[in-house]
Amino acid sequence: MEKTTPSRADRLIVEFKDNRLLSALYGEHNAHLARIEQMLDVLLEERGNVIAISGPVASCSLARDVLCDLYALLENGGGVHMAEVDAAIRMREAEMVPVSALSEHVSAAPVQVPVSHSSDEGIKPAELTIRTRKKDITPRSPNQARYIKALGRSEMVFGLGPAGTGKTFLAVAQAVSQLMGGHVDRIILSRPAVEAGERLGFLPGDMKEKVDPYLRPLYDAISYMMPWEQAEKRFERGEIEVAPLAFMRGRTLTNAFVILDEAQNTTPMQMKMFLTRLGEGSRMVIAGDGSQVDLPDGSPSGLHEAVNILSGVPGVDFIHFDEKDVVRHPLVGRIVAAYDRPERS
User: Fold this and answer.
1) Which one, of 290, 243, 265, 244, lies nearest residue 194 by Cα?
2) pLDDT computed for residue 121 by the predictor
3) Nearest to 316 by CA among 170, 152, 154, 161
4) Structural domains in the chain?
């Protein structure tokens, strides 16, 4: 498709120093450059280690920053795939200033990378990286960046929002990082075993076999952060524990990183019971989507009540995600937005 030339346009030249990184930066058959062109309405002309960016003033600057971010990621030993390209675009779009704040024309002088980058709320990029045994985890949206910051500073964090925004995944990553670094002695992962249209009693097997399907997403997240052989050993030693919410009653959880997933399916009494398990040296993350409550009709959600009661309590952080933070397939974000429209109206 031929690009039209906008009325206010200019040309930026970006020059990269290390040719060895360019194949990963550009993508197979320049697929990454094509995605940037599509998403930002610019034209990228690649000549070896030089890229010429043509298009609207703001879009040229945005595309340059995205390319520099991805190049810096490669310099630091990271990988660049289409998900990282989309994440870089999402992060930079959130920081973009209005066109009126830019000069009439951007400089056509070559820009050598790496360049300095601004970051969310004064956070340095290294502070936004969660390091685990298998790979480093970085934020893919501004709200994910705020979430990672909150996970590092607060004793209790609520991650609230739709599926696919990384609420549980990032919490598990932080928990694994804390365990690997010796900051906590164990990880405790919990979910309420609430049926979403199915009856738990009709599932085959003993109690563990009945509740394992509800806890499978937590097992999957753990296996993504560390080799499964190591995870199994930690399960056996009790350093990682996955348990239904009902098994939390009467316990005091000390020196632990505790995560409650699918928190919208707790009753108010269950939520209060869980929150009061917090012991010395522990951190707690509560993740849930208030729009997907599977409790019986008329039953209030403990998550809704906790958000109302605990707002303003020192030491408790609330991070709200929306469809713009969905990092699964792009269609998932559009599905979430479509479902949300009737509720907003």
Assistant:
1) 265
2) 45
3) 154
4) 9-112 (3.30.1370.10), 120-344 (3.40.50.300)
